[in-house]
Amino acid sequence: MAGKAAAPGTAVLLVTANVGSLFDDPENLQKNWLREFYQVVHTHKPHFMALHCQEFGGKNYEASMSHVDKFVKELLSSDAMKEYNRARVYLDENFKSQEHFTALGSFYFLHESLKNIYQFDFKAKKYKKVTGKEIYSDTLESTPMLEKEKFPQDYFPECKWSRKGFVRTRWCVADCAFDLVNIHLFHDASNLVAWETSPSVYSGIRHKALGYVLDRIIDQRFEKVSYFVFGDFNFRLDSKSVVETLCTKATMQTVRAADTNEVVKLIFRESDNDRKVMLQLEKKLFHYFNQEVFRDNNGTALLEFDKELSVFKDRLYELDISFPPSRRARRRLSPTTTSGLTSAWETTSPCSWRSASRPGQVNLTPMCTSVVSCSDVWEAMAATPEGPSRDLPVARGAGDVPSIEIRPPTAASTTRPSATR
Fold first, then answer.
1. Domain range summary for the chain, segments of one domain joined by +
2. Could you say which of 90, 294, 376, 386 would form a disulfide bridge with 106 (CB–CB 3.0 to 4.6 Å)?
3. Cβ pair 365, 402 in contact under 8 A
4. pLDDT at residue 222, as a whole number
5. Could you give the 3-state DSSP secondary structure of residue 170?
6. Are residues 32 and 342 in contact, defined by beta-carbon separation less than 8 angstroms?
7. What is the pLDDT of residues 55-91, one digit of tens each?
8. Residue 51 buriedness (CB in 10 A; 0-12 / 13-18 / 19+)
9. CA distances from 70 to 26, 27, 80, 357 (A)
10. What are phi and psi of 275, to 5 degrees?
């Protein structure tokens, strides 16, 4: 767990969550999620806090706008957040623009004890002191305090231009300048396609998009600073390698659609033991009979297949994973549901350490939501009394809160770029 805010310095808490399901059931899921979030704030007592949300507003933003307004109002006015007297909220609400809409929501909260906090104006190319609470929405493209881009259409698999992109802000806190990037990368559209090659075609698309973002935030337009990238990466375990390992001695049965002859299901059976089904694989279903493999020793046996971030090992750093995996899931509402965290689930991916959902059987997700940074951040943090520390995800349900607490170095160890005061 992250260290308490006892050591001198400024405690920074970075939180990321895919919150799409919260707006499907605001009376249950949203209330439970906010309760967990407030508990994180109470536990770590950060001075500066960033909350990056993906799928903000749910699948149908227009229908959820009233829930969005209520969610934002609750965050800004709740008793749990009363000590945060300055805030910046950036909501991409331009859902009618296919060219620009990303459904990203970025929240930044500053504790009343913090003095002289600055945010970078990308248009004026200078820092501005942060005062009061402000909300920006609709056309974020014209907001000078951030950079926002939706990935180009040719990046999108299956030619479906979905809501994927990134938002970047720059801050100067405790004499330390850094970028915070909210990101949402592409998911695996089909398990049947993902397992055909290693790495999968979807993995290649995610690598291309993440590389594009990293190149953008260190290009020559602005002075280079350290950065944190946290959001929904949609990283998956290497499906082909996992299936081959889990089903080494299995025989495979292929099921095709009668009208198109298209493969719709793969069934892996034990070669003996009455040919029991070991794994059933469909476009949106990954059902492995032995769920203990995902729980034993926090699922560390599968970490060797968590390869997607390794492509960027010279550019990005992530703290060690020490918590159990969860899996991406579809939530099925029913009249018997008593709580948003106890409703029925189906999984769409095998396993995930970065997932924003409950365990189930949908597809092979390692860490979807995660916090990564450039390596020089941690070199600087290592010199501080406590150093950085990684939290466990605190909520097992739609919209987990994977988070990280850091303590920026003091003014003696970091030079701040000149700021407008």
1. 12-236+309-320+367-406
2. 90
3. no
4. 95
5. strand
6. no
7. 999 988 888 888 999 999 999 999 999 999 999 999 9
8. buried
9. 9, 11, 16, 23
10. 50, 45
